[in-house]
Amino acid sequence: MEYYLYPPFLLIEPQNSFADAWEYFCCRLLNLEHQTNKIYVRKPPDRGVDLFWPDEGIAYQCKAVENGTAGGLQLAHVKASFKQALDYQAQIGWRDYILCTNVDLTGPQQEKLLQMYPGLKIQGYSYWMQLCRRFHEQIADRFQVLIPIAAPHIQQAVQAINKRYLHNYLPIIQEYPPTDLIHILLYSNRYKHIFEFSIPVVFTAHDILLMLRELFELPGPKYIQEHHTVVSLEYSLHVNNKEVAPQQKLSELQVNDRPIITLWKTIVWSENHRTLPATTDLESTFQKPVSKSKGSLYGSEKLAVEQYIREMDRAVNRAITRFSPIENSG
């Protein structure tokens, strides 16, 4: 099993930041590995020592890259923490110093750190990966559940789209070799699940929206009219937290494999023939958005939005059951 050691895959909660979450995550795994409970997280000011094992005199500095990019570690931060740890070495009582990071360092990065302190030990991505596999049951609560959507589900959705919307949608899918496909990750903020499936890199945001609507059986656009007020509920797509225009292709975004896809609800309402700006002001099924609206919904419009959210929730719950390998294997 592959583990992604960064958000949203590695959960931040119950801590308040990824930096804190990484410290507690490392602390748990180190105690499991060494069969002890004596390694603990130091409270601020930590003096450059995030974790400490008094019995062995080992100081740990925990530094993580929030997007998980290999080689993305900021060496200046590492050096600053180490300098502080050296200043307080006698007071703390450490003898060995270990850097705990969620990425593998490049050769030049390792050389620079070892020039600073030849005795430094580095525990990178590969180290934590083998510990995650070894203690997978004990750390399962720290990860989102990754659900790969099997090919038959994709083909079924494609056939439905081909029949309902575009007559050439199925040939478009079939003509692309695996090398022209990209894995995408659909992230749910409201659920402990991430869905993974493959699509051609030439797909537009509109194509992906069609695929998501069919795969997850999401409710279609809704239009609610009450007296002089009209409310429409639609979807928009974000890739790596950036909104994407409907006709923009994935290949044009220059994203790496496994970009994070989030689906937002877009709400537009008009009163007395005056259209108010579009907004994504309510919690989305797949991402917690930031409010952009100064106005608010009320009465029947608010009830309609709440019903829409419930419909989306039910659709996602059914998808979790339908796509789960455990469920399908039974």
Main pleated-sheet profile: 8 strands, mixed
What's the gyration radius in Å? 24 Å
In N-to-C order, the SSE pattern is HEEEHHEHEHEHHEEHEEEHEEHH
CATH architecture of the largest domain: Roll
The CATH superfamily name of the largest domain is Phosphatidylinositol 3-kinase Catalytic Subunit, Chain A, domain 1
Structural class: alpha/beta
Describe the secondary structure blueprint for this structure.
Elements: H1 18-33, E1 40-41, E2 51-53, E3 58-63, H2 75-87, H3 89-92, E4 96-101, H4 107-116, E5 121-123, H5 125-134, E6 145-148, H6 151-164, H7 169-174, E7 181-187, E8 193-200, H8 205-215, E9 222-226, E10 229-239, E11 242-244, H9 250-253, E12 260-271, E13 274-275, H10 299-323, H11 325-329
Parallel strand pairs: 3-4, 4-5, 6-8, 7-12
Antiparallel strand pairs: 1-2, 2-3, 7-8, 9-10, 10-11, 10-12, 12-13
